[in-house]
Amino acid sequence: MQELHGGVRARSCSGVGLGLRAPHYAYVEEHRPEVPWFEVLVDNYIGKGGAALHHLETIRSDYPFRFHGVGMSLGSTDPLDMSYLAGLRALIDRFEPDTVSDHLCWTSVGGIHTHELLPLPCVEEAVAHVAARIDRVQDYLGRPILVENVSSYLTYRDDAFTEWEFLDAVAERADCGVLLDINNIQVSAHNHGFDAHAYLQGVDPKRVGEFHLAGYEDQGSYLLDTHGEPVHAPVWELYRAALRRFGAVPTLIEWDTNLPKFERLQEEADTARIIRAEELADAA
Ligand SMILES: [Fe+2]
Question: In angstroms, what is the span from residue 138 Cα to ligand 1's centroid?
Fold first, then answer.
């Protein structure tokens, strides 16, 4: 087990996990498939009761969880949503997830939620702003979090750093972990014309506690992060490079739209597992 800064112990869940989605509850409960862990999208459960939480309880009895969210709006200038964080903390107490993660982005302005994961300007002022908010979240939750790089379709005229320099500076300042979404790196590298491998080289290996893999759609002039396709070849290649740099980091297959049968998700995880084993064996 690797200990990250801020006391993040990120190796209790190892191997290749899957996102837990409602259409698969019945399959998972009936078949108890061989999956090392599930990632739970907390926004679907905060403040909820009834059947959804009952399914979580049932599945949690057999599988470790990681928590992932889209609602912290860590980069926003709006006040932190304390009712959201209180709901998250209650879920953490109840389900004891291995890790908790959200995105390095902003999603709300003036109290209006855009439901988009919007990139931050890569400037010192934004580093200080978002790191202070991550610090407050970590204090409130009583644990470190992982922050994830988002895919993006715009940059800011005032950007003073690369995205990976920004991510690394925020993680260092907030003393938090990093969730590296390999697909998001590939999408943004294509859209903005930067070197995806330089991105990997710019992130401190001590901080990386999880990888995400997903599928994008090629829109001709840009790539769109849809989570609705198999993982594409350039992302598998970048995943190999990430394994060589960062080692045996737990990996998640994200598939949210055009959700296939559970067995298809397992096939995708099997591919990741084979690649992981090859790269880690070569490294050893
Ligand atoms: Fe992701």
Answer: 20
List the one residue out of 43, 218, 216 whose CA is nearest residue 113. Answer: 43
**d(CA 225, ligand 1 centre) in Å:** 9
Question: How far is Cα 160 from Cα 123, in angstroms, rounded to an integer?
Answer: 5
Q: How far is the CA of 140 from the centre of ligand 1 (A)?
A: 24
Q: Which helix (H) or strand (E) holds 208?
A: strand 208-213
Q: Where are the domains of the chain?
A: 5-283
| Per-block mean pLDDT, blocks of 10 residues, the chain (284 long) | 42 87 97 97 91 95 96 93 96 96 91 86 96 98 98 91 97 98 97 96 97 93 88 97 97 94 97 96 83
Cα–ligand 1 centroid distance for 185 (angstroms): 10
Question: How far apart are the CA of 175 and the centre of ligand 1, in A?
Answer: 20
Q: What does the pLDDT read at residue 3?
A: 45
Q: What pLDDT score does 210 carry?
A: 97
Report whether 104 contacts 150 (CB < 8 A): yes
Least Cα distance to 225 among 257, 194, 193 occurs for 257
CATH topology of domain 5-283: TIM Barrel (3.20.20)
Å from CA of 212 to ligand 1 middle = 5
